[in-house]
Amino acid sequence: MNDTVIATRESRLALWQAEHVRDLLQQRFGLAVRLLGMTTRGDQILDRALSKVGGKGLFVKELEAALEDGRAHLAVHSLKDVPMELPPGFVLAAVMEREDPRDAWVSARHASPLDLPQGAVVGTSSLRRVVQLLAMRPDLRIEPLRGNLDTRLRKLDEGGYDGIVLAAAGLMRLGLESRIRMRFDVDTMIPAAGQGALGLEVREDAADLRATIARLVHAPTLLACEAEREVSRGLGGSCSMPLAAHAHWVGSELKLAAALGDGVAPTRPLLKVELTAAVQGVDEARALGARAVAALRAQGAAGYLPAA
Ligand SMILES: NCc1[nH]cc(CCC(=O)O)c1CC(=O)O
């Protein structure tokens, strides 16, 4: 059989993730796997906040083009970067076991954002992080921070910020865990839908590969992420919305928390919900997400969303 080819972005994080999946496919299924590195639009646009660039799935379109024309068979994504609706002809064949879903605080001098002096400068371009930081500390000055993980850390080290917020999972994958000063608990800084999990995308018609890859599914992670992603989907979600959704297991029940802020007026109070349900399958997980959307709408979510 021919090599299985993984299309991947070329950031250090994307390569780590692709190599991780390559190694698993080799070890567990004896497949011969190689990587096809690609630069995406999202990698090229470094000067503007992604939320202003707008396009959904900025990081995935080129990879899908490679799957479409057969140059590659599989794309490995950070699930939180995958749009809620895939284009026709593509499926998420697996969601793998999630590592640490939390956001991390990185700073040379301050152990937590709560220790910062009045008006301190925090770097992040994620509206989700902006609205939750301001809910903790309305006095903070939030400044944009773009680029891959190494770039963001370099900008912090160059002195432009008192601290920055990054996903713990990305830092851990790159061996940068020692940079983490603290991890936010998931109630005060609710993670993004899918944060910390890897999603494997293939063509819908790739029956054999789909069957193989389905064996990498981690069901508890999949169900949690289905609930989270349904919140995003139900609010017309894109990464440009200040929306957080995180689910975790408490015994056999899934506990889902979500928060919505106002991207235009980021100091407006957050809308928050927390719901728990016994969940056994994808439909029940999505139903839990849909209930969270209904609860947010009952709190006035429409007034927080960009006019359609
Ligand atoms: N938006 C970029 C991105 N996509 C995935 C991760 C981290 C790894 C993950 O969440 O799986 C990051 C970096 C960050 O948000 O700090």
Automatic annotation (TrEMBL):
Residues 5-209 form the Porphobilinogen deaminase N-terminal domain. The porphobilinogen subunits are added to the dipyrromethane group. Belongs to the HMBS family. GO terms for biological process: protoporphyrinogen IX biosynthetic process. It comes from Rubrivivax albus. Pfam families: Porphobil_deam (PF01379), Porphobil_deamC (PF03900). Its EC number is 2.5.1.61. GO terms for cellular component: cytoplasm. InterPro entries: HemC (IPR000860), Porphobilin_deaminase_N (IPR022417), Porphobilinogen_deaminase_C (IPR022418), Porphobilinogen_deaminase_C_sf (IPR036803). Pathway: Porphyrin-containing compound metabolism; protoporphyrin-IX biosynthesis; coproporphyrinogen-III from 5-aminolevulinate: step 2/4. The modification S-(dipyrrolylmethanemethyl)cysteine is found at C239. Residues 223-295 form the Porphobilinogen deaminase C-terminal domain. This is Porphobilinogen deaminase. Its cofactor is dipyrromethane. SUPFAM superfamilies: Periplasmic binding protein-like II (SSF53850), Porphobilinogen deaminase (hydroxymethylbilane synthase), C-terminal domain (SSF54782). Keywords: Porphyrin biosynthesis, Transferase. Tetrapolymerization of the monopyrrole PBG into the hydroxymethylbilane pre-uroporphyrinogen in several discrete steps. It catalyses: 4 porphobilinogen + H2O = hydroxymethylbilane + 4 NH4(+).
